[in-house]
Amino acid sequence: MIQPDQPLAQLTDVVRQFGTGATVIRAIDGVSLAVGPGERIAVVGPSGAGKSTLLSLLGLIDRVDEGEVRLSGEAANDLSEDARADLRREHIGFVFQLFHLIPALSALENVAVPLLPYAKRGPVLERAEGLLLDLGLGERLRNRPGELSGGEQQRVGIARALIGQPDLVLADEPTGNLDSRTAGQVVDLLLGLQERDGFALVVATHDERLADRLDSRVTLLDGRLVNGA
User: Fold this and answer.
1) How far apart are CA 43 and CA 38, in angstroms?
2) Rounded CA gap, 3 and 148, in Å?
3) Angle at alpha carbon of residue 5, lines to 224 and 162, rounded to 5°
4) If you average pLDDT over residues 3-26, what whole number do you get?
5) Which of 42, 44, 197, 216 has the highest Cβ tally under 10 A?
6) How many CA atoms lie within 13 A of 204 on its CB side?
7) 96 and 150 in contact (C-beta within 8 Å)?
């Protein structure tokens, strides 16, 4: 179990590169970052700086070429794909810019999907409904994604990220597909749930208003960490 004074997630001198020979690009180049329990960190930088890749490494979606990744105190580099998937399910929730909802499923079913293979359907659906109620979607439980606005779809995405009661939520440009008014509403809801539940939050964003509301920020440029605050 992670201790309060220990990092929940940690990257140490990590490198992630793509291509071969003269065409190798280091998307992440020697980055170290620690995320403590309950921390709220903005990852900022221009397009192509490596923000999404950094979140993929933190979330064990992608593997590093060099360096070390630890999650909840466990070294993750050499774990099997199944073991990495177990760690993700137990500790991490993901929020995406493009929502990634399943078109044929209702809002309620989309939220429940990550846990349905591992837990009893009734309690999972009950928790999913509670999260959607918290996010103001009590009247939209049975609607499919195509029947929801962009802001409503993103709220479903947030509920899905929280269904497993994660220690860490990784949000990749969560307001990037929303107008400014809707983005503000979604951010209010996400930060309200973070304050209530206490999960750590790492957000890759171009939205300065969102970055300013988090506790600290790190800046990436060409895959390198150029400052932290």
Assistant:
1) 16
2) 40
3) 75
4) 86
5) 42
6) 24
7) no
| Alpha carbon 8 to its chain's center | 14
Report whether 141 contacts 112 (CB < 8 A). no
The residue among 173, 129, 128, 127 whose CA lies nearest residue 154 is 173
Kindly state the tokens that stand for 61: 């979606």
Radius of gyration of the chain (CA): 17
DSSP code, position 175: T
CA pair distance 23, 135, nearest whole angstrom: 45
Phi, psi for 15 (deg, rounded to 5): -130, 135
Query: Which of 46, 49, 68 has its CA nearest to residue 57?
Result: 68
Question: What letter does residue 36 receive in the DSSP assignment?
Answer: -
Q: What is the pLDDT of residues 35-75, one digit of tens each?
A: 999 999 999 999 889 999 999 999 999 999 999 999 988 99
pTM greater than the 0.85 cutoff: yes
Distance of CA 108 to the CA centre of its chain: 20
In a 10 Å sphere around its CB, with 0-12 CB exposed, 13-18 middle and 19+ buried, how is residue 194 labelled? Answer: middle
The DSSP element (H or E) to which 134 belongs, if any, is helix 121-134
List the beta bridge partners of residue 112. Answer: none
The secondary element (H helix, E strand) that includes residue 126 is helix 121-134
Contact 227, 32 (CB under 8 A): no
β-pairing verdict for 9-18 and 25-35: antiparallel
CA distances from 53 to 26, 57, 130, 171 (A): 10, 6, 32, 12
